[in-house]
């Protein structure tokens, strides 16, 4: 089971959730901060994938099934 949006991160609400101190930054500095955070998150996501590749096939299958369950729970919760 794959997620078509797994390679794209929605960072649209990140700007509004930055600490108050970030308001003192210029627009360019804030954009740089957001981009740095986005890059870091993407790097961490890539490392997570690398860790999964080191797991045995049985464990990887369990992870895949758990992800499918997670999608089902999310879908159910979004409906109810």
Brief description of this entry?
Helix content is 62%, strand content 0%. The protein has 80 residues and is an all-alpha fold.
Walk me through this protein's architecture.
With 80 residues, the chain is mainly α. It has one domain (20-79). It is 62% helix and 0% strand. It contains 2 helices and no strands. It has helices at residues 27-53, 57-79. The longest helix has 27 residues, at 27-53. The model is unreliable at 1-6 (pLDDT under 50). This is Nucleosome assembly 1 4-like. It comes from Olea europaea subsp. europaea.
Keywords:
2 helices; disordered N terminus; mainly alpha; 80 residues
What's the SSE pattern?
HH
How far is it from the N-terminal to the C-terminal residue, by CA?
23 Å
Low-confidence spans: pLDDT under 50, at least 5 residues? 1-6
* Tally of discrete structural domains: 1
Tell me, briefly, the overall form: flat
Quaternary: single chain
- Arithmetic mean pLDDT: 78
- How large is the count of helical segments? 2
CA-based gyration radius: 17 Å
Protein name: Nucleosome assembly 1 4-like
Organism: Olea europaea subsp. europaea
Describe the SSE topology.
Elements: H1 27-53, H2 57-79
């Amino acid at each position: 089971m794959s997620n078509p949006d797994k390679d794209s991160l929605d960072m649209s609400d990140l700007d509004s959730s930055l600490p108050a101190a970030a308001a003192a930054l210029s627009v360019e500095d804030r954009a740089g901060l957001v981009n740095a955070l986005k890059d870091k998150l993407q790097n961490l996501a890539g490392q997570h994938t690398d860790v999964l590749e080191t797991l045995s096939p049985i464990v990887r299958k369990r992870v895949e099934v758990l992800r499918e369950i997670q999608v089902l729970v999310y879908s159910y919760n979004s409906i109810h």
